[in-house]
Amino acid sequence: MLYTVGRSPYQCDFNVIFNLLASGDDILFIQDGVLAGIDGSCYLPALMNHGVTLYVLKEDIEARGLVGQISDKVQVIDYTDFVNLTVKHHQQFAW
Question: pTM of the entire structure?
Answer without folding.
Answer: 0.92
